[in-house]
Structure formats: structure tokens, C-alpha cells
Predict the structure.
Amino acid sequence: MSNQAVVQAFLKGMEQPISRIPEHLRKSMTDDAVWGNSGFPPCVGIDDIMSKHEMSAKVFGDYILTADILHIAESPDGVVFTERIDVGRTQAGEEILTVPVVGVFEVRDGKIARWTDYFDPRGLLEGLSVLPDVEAFFTGKAPSTS
């Protein structure tokens, strides 16, 4: 399977309720994977990545994220670039989040080893504003109690 096909399958596998995503992540990503979102500290390791997805369910509910790939390309060294529109919807189909994204993926042994998304975070931050400590969502530190 080409790296491009691995990324396409990975993104397609994300199209399920967020409560089921941790299993997909563990199957599809290396144990030492790094997931970054522009402007925020990266998640390092599969457990950290899974915890961020689990936290997003607390914010947005058991939503489903669809990645509409507009363009995809693989560099000569195997890095995969995507331009996509990520849309989060409730299970009833109500749109709760739409984010244009450029993603960069590195694949190792058929699994995602690095996933970095570049996007304008305004829409995401609006949804995350319900959290008492938005930084904790991205850093994994315990929320402040002040």
C-alpha cells in the first residue's frame, strides 16, 4: 500500500463516532507517533494522541468527523500532503465544526508516524471555549482550579 493510500485509509477510518476513534488510532499510528495542530503543542505518543481525541468528545459530544480530501500528493521521499475540509457533525447530522486544513503525514511501516495539521484555529477555539482551561486540552496538563 502506498503512503498516500495509508493516509486516505486513515482519514476514512476517522469517519466514525469519536468514542470509537481510540481503537482506530492505535491500529493506524505508531506507538511513538506525533500529532500536531498549528499553534498548539504536539501530542507525543499514541496514548497522548488518544487522550486528546477522548477529551474532544467531552467538548463536542460523540461527534463524527469527515475529512473531505480536496487534494492529495506524495513527495518523492514519501511524505503525504493533503488539502481538506474537516467537518464535525453530531450523530443526528447537525454540523458543529468546519475547518479547512492542510495536513502533512509521515508513514513508517504502513502506519502514521507523524500527523501535522495546519489551519485557522478560530472555529475550533470557539467550540473549546466551553472548557475551563483550553490549554489543558492541548497540553494534557491538569486543568487549573483557580
Remarks:
- The domain at 3-129 is CATH 3.10.450.50 (Nuclear Transport Factor 2; Chain: A,).
- The first strand starts at residue 29 and ends at 37.
- Residues 93 and 107 are 32 Å apart (CA to CA).
- Helices lie at 3-13, 21-28, 46-60, 122-128, 134-139.
